[in-house]
Please model this.
Amino acid sequence: MNVWRAAADLIREGASGALATVARVRGSTPVPAGTKMLVGAEGRLIGSVGGGCVEAEVIGAALEAQRRREPALLRHHLNADLAGDLGLSCGGTVEIFVEPLVAEASYVSVLESAATAESGLVRTATEWTSAPVKTFERLGPSALPGAAATLTRDGRFMEERLIQAPRVFVFGAGHVGAAIARAAAAAGFRVVIIDDRAEYADPSRFTESVGVLAAEVDDALMRYPLTAADAVVIATRGHRNDALILERVATSPAGYVGLLGSRRKKVVVTKGLKAAGVPAKSLERVRVPVGLAIGAVTPEEIAVSVVAELIAWRRGEG
Model:
């Protein structure tokens, strides 16, 4: 769930709340900079900043920030004992910025901009006098190097660099494709599931976090031109449909292309596509069988294996 949107909605509902953001980390820590948690009047609502006693203290600080309507910057030194409790091999330092949600138009506007922007920079003052100081600036992706969040050198501002999660296009809305789409959305990807059968490409079968499109492959690719930041998973109802889609996407800029099926299927499909003129190099990068080799059998297990591989690709690990 989009934590920025949820925070804005909480304000509109007239409820109190606070945002906790991991502003800076050093050494081994349970979560990276930029990780956010939304806290309501009675505790954690969405997200996590690490769990254990760290999170308990952050929730307490968030409740206090709501009461006092003032932000706070917390620093935790994860010594060996605490690091062990959190499952870490060594300690580190984490700084967490806690800010109360404020029902001011300029503040809510920043939350809404961050919720919908493809990229941007959010700057929040770490100390407030009479009102929150929070701004949003739209930036191109090439202007967003470095960590997702950091504190300025003087500690007066937290800066958050926003880049949307990769898109995952799942071709095929059958049992396996639907399970992959749901699992990928749960893992934080922006997911669109595509099928040429309207009864399968039915939005009522999915949550709002999954985009649904009833279309042939060519129409789908016209609507969603692929980029290097995109992933494609092909899980349709047969070799013929798979081959048609793979012919279109194998030579695309997509950073990840996976095909559901066996190694034998890869041989059959790629042989036909090579004969049709698809470059061998384009076909070699296709992941078949798609997903990590964990012995997955059921649609849900297959979905776990595929999304695990997508996460490795997203994090540069595979």
The chain has a mean pLDDT of 88. The longest strand covers residues 18-27. The radius of gyration is 22 Å. Residues 3-163 form one domain.
